[in-house]
Automatic annotation (TrEMBL):
Residues 32-51 bind DNA. The keyword DNA-binding applies. This is HTH tetR-type domain-containing protein. PROSITE patterns: HTH_TETR_2. The keyword GTP-binding does not apply. Keywords: DNA-binding, Transcription, Transcription regulation. GO terms for molecular function: DNA binding. Residues 9-69 form the HTH tetR-type domain.
């Protein structure tokens, strides 16, 4: 039985899936590209050929991040009676539960501080998410913006180790309780 070689688009997709997790945990470094290559069983130069640069790999990961968030929003809002924003928020919490989206977004924002190309892509992701939410919702731009602000708080809470699975209000109550404070 002959082994079928993977196509470049398939390898690229595999690399993005791996890189999202690796970058979330380790940043968009050359060492991260090596980790991606190692997990794929290819050379680091091959990964660079697929994406052109570390920045190219990070931008591809941001494309996938946007796609996953928008897809989760659409999936969560399907067959919802009434306003879908609460269902969209719940779908978002489910999407970020493993920490990959959270870590990748934080690493991308850190890279954006010194890389205008990454910053522009991060801004485009936010705009696309707002547009998608407005298209799916009847709540209006202010409610959608408030939901994105709440989602950002959820992401931040998750990044610092808070359990957000029961919702942000529960996580905030836990955060504010005296037993979690250290002085």
């Amino acid at each position: 039985m002959a082994t079928q070689r993977s196509t470049a688009p398939r390898r690229r997709s595999d690399a993005v899936a791996i890189a999202m997790r690796v970058i979330a945990d380790h940043g968009a470094t050359t060492a991260s590209v090596q980790k991606v290559a190692d997990e794929m069983g290819v050379s680091q130069p091959y990964v660079f050929r697929l994406f052109g640069s570390r920045r190219g790999l990070l931008l591809a990961c941001l494309d996938e991040l946007e796609s996953r968030i928008r897809g989760a929003m659409r999936d969560s809002s399907r067959d919802v009676a009434g306003e879908p924003l609460p269902a969209i928020r719940a779908g978002y919490r489910n999407l970020i539960a493993d920490g990959v989206i959270t870590g990748l977004w934080l690493q991308a924002c850190a890279a954006a501080r010194s890389d205008e190309v990454v910053a522009a892509r991060c801004r485009a992701v936010i705009a696309a998410i707002l547009d998608e939410a407005e298209a799916l919702s009847s709540a209006g731009p202010q409610a959608v913006t408030a939901s994105l602000a709440r989602a950002t708080l959820v992401l931040t809470m998750q990044a610092i180790g808070m359990d957000v699975s029961a919702g942000i209000d529960t996580a905030l109550t836990t955060l504010r309780s005296t037993e979690t404070r250290t002085h």
